[in-house]
Design goal:
The protein is an alpha+beta fold. The chain has two domains: 5-120, Aminotransferase class 4, branched-chain amino acid transferase, N-terminal domain (D-amino Acid Aminotransferase, Chain A, domain 1); 125-290, Alpha-Beta Barrel (D-amino Acid Aminotransferase, Chain A, domain 2). The protein contains eight helices and 15 strands. It has helices at residues 25-29, 47-60, 68-83, 125-130, 153-164, 207-218, 230-234, 275-292; strands at 5-8, 11-14, 32-40, 43-45, 88-95, 113-120, 132-138, 169-174, 177-181, 185-190, 193-196, 223-225, 238-243, 247-259, 262-267. Strands 7, 8, 9, 10, 11, 12, 13, 14 and 15 form a nine-stranded mixed sheet that branches. The chain binds N-(5'-phosphopyridoxyl)-D-alanine. N-(5'-phosphopyridoxyl)-D-alanine binds next to helix 6.
Length: 295
Amino acid sequence: MTGHWALYQDTLLPRQDAKTDIEDRGYQFGDGVYEVIRVYSGELFLAEAHAKRMEKSLRELSISFPDCSERVIKGAQLLVEAEGIDDGIVYLQITRGAAPRVHQFPSKDTVPVFTGTAGPLPRSLELMGQGITVLLLPDIRWLRNDIKSLNLLGAVLSKQRAKEKGCYEAILERNGIMTEGSSSNLFIVKDGTLITHPANNLILNGITRQEIIKLATTRNIPVQEVPFTIEEFFRSDEAFICGTTTEIMPITQIKTLDSPDAVRSSALASGTPGPITRKLQDLFSDLVTRCGGGS
Ligand code: PDD
C-alpha cells in the first residue's frame, strides 16, 4: 500500500518515519499475526470479528497484547481517517517484538510491535460478475492455517504460480481433499447444498466465510462444513472463493498442471456463475450496503 500514514504502536506517523528494528521477530521469523479489514464508504466492515480473530491468533502464539480488540479497531479507524479511505483495506500486524535472534521466545519484557497501513481498493464488481479462473495446486503450507500468522511463504509461492498461469487464485488440495485458496476460502454447491471445508487447523476460518454461512442459513440454503475431494470439486454445480478483498468470486474455469509446463483447462459446470453463487453475492452486497453504505 502506498499511503502517507503508518500506525506504529497505536500512534499515527508519517509513513517515512515508521521504522522497524532489524531484529524484529516478525522480520526474522514471521513471528507475528495480521488482519486485513475491509472499508466500504469510509466505514470498517466486520471489524469486531477481525479484532477477535486477531486476539485468537495472538493467544495461539502466546503473544501478550493487552486490550487487543479496542486497540485494533481504534488503530484501523485512525488509518482510515488519516488516509481518507472510501472503499479500501486496512492492514494491521502485531509481532512478538525485537530481540536478539534465538528461536525460543525472548524475555518477558520484549514489547510486541503493532503496525498498520491503509489504502484504497475498489470492489472488483466486473470480475465478480464474470467469474475467475483458478489453478489447482498441492497445499504446501504448514498445519496451523487457523492462525493468521505472518508466515505466508506457502501462500506466496502458490499465488505467484497462479499468476504465472494466468489465474486469479490458487486453490489448494491436501491428500485429495480441497482445503481453501491461497488467500481465500473455497465453497462448492452440489444439488442445492453449500459445502465448505470444516474450520479446523487446515484452513483459516474466514470472516467472509462465516458471514456467508450465516446468510445462507437465514435463507434456508443448506450448508455442510465437511471435507470434499478434488473429484467432487470438479463435479460440483457451482464453486466460488471468498475473502475480505475478494468478497464472493465465482469460479468458472479450473486449470491443472500435468507437469510444470503442461496446463490443462476445463470449465466448471456451465462455465458461468451459478444461481446460488449469484444469490449469495446479492445478499453479501446488501450486507455491505447496510453495514458500510457501500456502492
Ligand atoms: N486473506 N484463507 C486464507 C488463507 C486467507 O489468507 C484469507 C484472507 C481467507 C479469507 O479470510 P477473510 O474472509 O477473513 O478475509 C481465507 C487476507 C485477505 C490476506 O491475506 O490478504
